[in-house]
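User: Sequence in, structure out. Go.
Assistant: Echoing your sequence, followed by the structure tokens.
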Amino acid sequence: MTKNRLDGLQIVLLGGVLVFLISALIALANPQGMSDFKQFYYASRCLIQHHDPYQESQLWAVYKAEVKTVPSDPQVLKWLHEILLCPNMPTTLLLIAPLALLPWNAAVSVWMALIAASFLVAGYLVWRVCSDTVPRSSAALVFLIFVNSVDGLSIGNTAALVVGLCVIAVWCFASERFVWAGILCLAVSLAIKPHDAGIVWLYFLLAGGVARRRALQTLAATALIALPAVMWVSHEVPHWPQELHANLNAITALGGQDDPGPHSGGGFGLMMMVNLQVIVSRIHDDPSFYNPVVYLLCGVPLMLWALKTLRTRYSPTQAWYALAAAVPFAMLAVYHRCYDCRLLLVAVPVCADLWVARSPLRWYALALTLAGIIVTGDLLWIVVFQITGYSPALLRASVIPPPIVLAVLGGFYMWVYLKRSGQASFPDAAVDAG
């Protein structure tokens, strides 16, 4: 291994270790640490005990029985009631069930290890794609993504796992190595967060040839997860679709935790929402207005992207270019938060490729990729909010920059992808060699 590659590897590993240690410390020190994991952990335990996790009263009763004592602070109680409103699909509850059989401390430890490992492996594999050409620079980008991912990991959100598994799947499919591991990774991602993994699966479906075969195999694997999950939940909770729908309506309603409008109860601050609805809703705060507008704005470039993908011969290099173009628009189109944007890992090989090829666009690629990582990450907003004392006005204004930066980044990579001839430029052998 050359010195440059060794330096790059050390940078990636350092970033992975840092994000794990800092996230673990925050989770331990913060009373709200691992809050998202708490939600689906107790929902799965509720189901295992033959109760209805989609009914807040039953989930709350199981939670109180498990923890024995609940906080007396009204604000903390309000927060607990908000997180103990289950919006998770049966597939998530089934996949988490093995951890739900463990005591809380053991389950948290295993979950943190799983998400940290998947994230680290994903970053390492992305770096390996670029390691023969720009090992230090690509490692620095991966490092920056790692250290901007602390909040998502510290609350135990499934996005941290899903992003890692999606990127691992892309590498497996592009390199044609450990293919069945890639199929399993993408299937689990689809089963947990289809709005994150769906764009990755769709690309391989549209790309044709061996890529389409991988997509169909993944769909079959996802069905194998979904069928027992739906059967299990339907047996315990026959009316779960209606109850799940009611819970989703509650958290997305005006003032709800996932309301993208200016009166949102949880769309601001760290882990803010990044979908384009947060901006369009400022014009008119009505889902019947802002959703169609956003679907049109994001749908047109994604339709062009789909046509380009159908008409272009698949190659491993092309896969990275296509996903770098599509992921920002997928983030903008529907509900996503900052931690979902770590899927921008797929843009690192493209940025590196344009740099190595000495493309006239290389500085734009670097500047926009850095902007996408930083503006949708943790560090910038931690500093800004600490300096300003979490000013309410700033909290509401802070949701504006991330969608704008994502739109510009997506537009740039979409333009590059649509203009691209389809030939490999960075050596696919480097991808194949993994």
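User: And one key feature?
Assistant: Residues 209-236 form the longest helix (28 residues).
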